[in-house]
Design goal:
The protein is an alpha+beta fold and 732 residues long. It has four domains: 2-167, no CATH class; 194-295, Beta-Lactamase, CATH 3.30.450; 306-466, Reverse transcriptase/Diguanylate cyclase domain (Alpha-Beta Plaits); 490-731, EAL domain (TIM Barrel), CATH 3.20.20. Strands 18-19-21-22-23-24-25-26 form an eight-stranded mixed barrel, surrounded by four helices. It has a five-stranded antiparallel sheet with strand order 2-1-5-4-3. A five-stranded antiparallel sheet has the order 7-6-10-9-8, sandwiched between helices. The chain is elongated and about 170 Å long. Bound molecules: ligand C2E and magnesium ion (MG) (2 copies). Residues 512, 567, 599, 629 line the site of one magnesium ion (MG). The site of one magnesium ion has 5 residues, from strand 23.
């Protein structure tokens, strides 16, 4: 056998090896001589034979070099041992693998010795504590090879060893560094077995599971053994072609599938798959992300975006959308389509008297009834508050819409029994018909709304079809709104003042600030027309602020005993910050808060009563007074008088007008005066127009009043003049 050395053994060893190799060659030559001598005999022959031998030697050296080169390009480490376990030959890779022991490798050295030294130095962690035993086992493996085995080195690397005996009793050993492979295996195990995401490995050809991690087992409710008996399609609820496609691709594929678990639940999952080799088999790795809950949440969110939470009816968004579709379909097929806008009558009363939870229950019941009379292909919706709508997607005649509207009114108006309360509400309906009243959803809805508005103002519990003239009115209203906005912005709105008079002395004790809007084309627009408009459009905040500022500033110019009354709208309590506005107006003008009266109506107290009462107390803490305006109209609930200690009650002018002629009215006025004196509140009578009114009120003991008999509201300049005259009269 050819013997050699490796470069790694250093110069000294190399020299030893070279010498050794030379001696072997010499020996081989001698052998040749001995073999050749008897055959050829004589000098010439000998010479010839020597040449043959030299050639053989040269050949042997070349063959040896080739073998060495071949060994060096092997990716594995290789070692040759002789029949006594001594090193004969090894390649660089082998020396690299055992780099800690490489200094020990020498031709002729016994592997057992290097092993022992290595064990002594702790190069083999597995030998720790059982050194001799381990060495014995290792040598046993060396001489009785039973297939590949692994060996761990102290630096953490793992070496695969494979050994084979040679015919002359030596050993050829192969070494492969499988550290990265092992690490990859370990991380795969970590990523697979311990992954919280359910994972499977699927045989590419049979589609049966060949591995399943713990998460897959618990998620699907099977044991590992059970799973390994299943095929992928056993989990599927629906057959999905795409999953089969996945098997043909090397890229990561993502599909959404429905799977069933062992207990029969259906889950929706996104499955990521990728081809790989698994223990030598063609396989697919599947990772399953369960999106069931996410899908359910998404469905819920989508539902909520298009439905009203209280009644679960479609909301305005969905209604609008469906209406668009229905109108487009109608445009193709002809016929009529329609929108019914439904508003409940007296719903607010239920809410105010029985509370919001009861109001909510009622709305649910109403929704239910409206739904019941709506055909399958039509749509009932809740547009907000107590406003509902029905979309009739196709109808032969507008008359059908009238019949439906009447059905809705009748059904909704039936009494309700809710938590032991018998309740009734009515319904007013506005109807707009396509194509006559508009062909797009917005227009049709707006027109149905206008018709509803008309129905409401004409007496409720009826239905009204839209008419062009309603639109004209609405447009006029929009025009006023635009004008009002401009008038507020440019300061065209004026504040006039109507005197409040001490009835016994005819002395002016104060003025009520009243808004006046001189309109370029409409003359003076009365506040009863534009204040509600300002309330609806939100302009009231600006308007209310303006009055407070202007009136306080004007009142500063009046004698100190003359008071100022300013009206506050309920809307100013709902939006805007009345308290801050009042305080600002007082500070800006320097008016003594004791001179300011704020007039509110009962309707201020209808909504968010606690919030409003807190506001009223805060205002009073500023030193201003609070009056109850227009008493006797509206609900006139006595509980309002109890809920806040008003300073003043203003008897509505509708009572004063009737007073001299109507016995019943007199009784009411008398009762109000009695009530007020019992509650320590002052009384002012509004709308005194005649001497008779005045006489009657004075006789009943009313101390203060206002009305055209004394004066109507006048601009500040006239007020100053009036006050001066008053003064002069008093002085005179
Ligand atoms: P109000 O607060 O009850 O004001 C009294 C209304 O009665 C005033 O009507 C006044 O001109 C009218 N009036 C006074 N004496 C007589 C009379 O002898 N006979 C008749 N027939 N009417 C009389 P005006 O100015 O048209 O105001 C109407 C309503 O508009 C006010 O009723 C008040 O609710 C509201 N308003 C007026 N100015 C303001 C304001 O600055 N802010 C708010 N929020 N509302 C205001
Ligand atoms: Mg008033
Ligand atoms: Mg009034």
């Amino acid at each position: 056998m050819a013997k050699s050395f490796t470069k790694a053994n250093g110069g000294k060893h190399r020299r030893a090896a070279v010498d050794y190799a030379r001696s072997l060659l010499e020996r081989a030559k001698d052998r040749c001589w001995t073999m050749l001598d008897p055959l050829h005999g004589g000098g010439a022959k000998v010479k010839n034979a020597r040449a043959v031998a030299d050639a053989a030697i040269a050949n042997a050296a070349t063959a040896h070099e080739r073998l060495r080169a071949a060994l060096e390009i092997l990716p594995q480490g290789i070692v040759f041992l002789d029949n006594e376990g001594r090193y004969i030959l090894w390649n660089q890779k082998y020396a690299d693998i055992y780099k800690r022991s490489a200094d020990l490798f020498k031709v002729g050295v016994r592997l057992e010795d290097t092993l022992r030294i290595g064990v002594g130095r702790g190069d083999y962690p597995e030998a720790k504590g059982r050194e001799e035993e381990w060495i014995k086992e290792r040598l046993d493996q060396l001489y009785n090879p039973r297939g590949p085995h692994e060996q761990n080195l102290s630096d953490g690397r793992c070496i695969l060893i494979e050994e084979r005996k040679t015919s002359d009793g030596g050993v050829i050993g192969l070494r492969m560094d499988i550290t990265t492979l092992k690490q990859r295996e370990a991380s795969f195990r970590l990523l697979f077995d311990d992954n919280p995401v359910p994972m499977f490995v699927l045989h590419r050809d049979t589609q049966s599971f060949i591995a399943a991690n713990a998460a897959a087992q618990s998620h699907y409710g099977y044991t590992r053994d059970q799973l390994l008996k299943l095929k992928l399609h056993d989990l599927r609820v629906e057959h999905d072609e795409r999953v089969d496609d996945v098997a043909c691709s090397h890229e990561t594929e993502v599909v959404t599938v429905k799977h069933s678990t062992r207990d029969g639940r259906t889950i929706e999952a996104v499955v990521f798959s990728r081809q790989l080799e698994y223990e030598g088999d063609p396989a697919i790795l599947l990772a399953v992300v369960d999106i069931t809950e996410r899908k359910q949440a998404e469905a819920r969110i989508a539902f909520m975006a298009h439905h009203d939470a209280l009644t679960e009816l479609p909301n305005r968004v969905l209604f609008r959308q469906r209406m668009g579709d229905a109108l487009a379909a109608r445009a193709r097929s002809g016929g009529f389509a329609g929108a019914l806008c439904i508003d409940l009558d007296n719903f607010k009363l239920v809410n105010d008297t029985l509370g919001h939870p009861m109001g909510d229950r009622l709305l649910q019941e109403v929704a239910h009834r409206i739904q019941r009379v709506t055909r399958q292909r039509d749509m009932a919706a809740r547009l907000g508050g107590d406003e509902f709508a029905i979309l009739v997607s196709e109808s032969k005649t507008p008359q059908e819409l009238a019949i439906l509207a009447q059905r809705v009114i009748d059904t909704v108006s039936e009494p309700y029994m809710i938590e032991g309360h018998a309740l009734t509400v009515g319904a007013t309906i506005g109807i707009a018909v396509a194509p006559t009243d508009g062909e797009d959803a917005d227009r049709l809805l707006r027109n149905a709304d206008l018709a509803l508005y008309r129905g409401k103002s004409e007496g409720k519990s009826t239905f009204r079809f839209f008419e062009q003239e309603m639109d004209a009115k609405a447009q006029a209203r929009r025009q006023i709104e635009t004008d009002l906005r401009a008038a507020i912005a440019t300061g065209k709105i004026e504040v006039h003042y109507q005197p409040l008079v001490e009835l016994s002395t005819n002395e002016v004790v104060g003025f009520e600030a009243l808004l006046r809007w001189p309109h370029p084309t409409r003359g003076f627009v009365p506040p009863s027309e534009f204040v509600p408009l300002a309330e609806e459009t939100g302009l009231i905040t600006a308007l209310g602020n303006f009055v407070l500022k202007r009136a306080c500033a004007d009142a500063i110019e009046w004698p100190e005993h003359v008071k100022l009354a300013v009206n506050l709208s309920p809307m100013q309590f709902r939006v805007g910050n009345v308290y801050a506005n009042v305080k600002d107006a007082l500070t800006a003008s320097g008016l003594d808060p004791a001179r300011l009266d704020l007039e509110i109506t009962e309707s201020v107290l209808l909504d968010r009563t606690d919030h409003v009462i807190a506001h009223l107390h805060a205002l009073r803490a500023l030193g201003v007074r609070i009056s109850m305006d227009d008493f006797g109209t509206g609900y006139s609930s006595l509980s309002y008088l109890r809920s806040f200690p008003f300073d003043k009650i203003k008897i509505d002018r509708s009572f004063v007008r009737d007073l001299p002629s109507n016995r019943h009215t007199l009784a009411i006025v008398r009762a109000i005066l009695g009530l007020a004196s019992g509650l320590d509140m002052k009384v002012v009578a509004e709308g005194i127009e005649t001497q008779a009114d005045l006489a009657c009120l004075a006789a009943e003991g009313c101390k203060e009043g206002q009305g055209f008999l004394f004066s109507e509201a006048r601009p500040q300049a006239e007020v100053i003049k009036l006050l001066n005259e008053n003064q002069r009269r008093h002085v005179a």
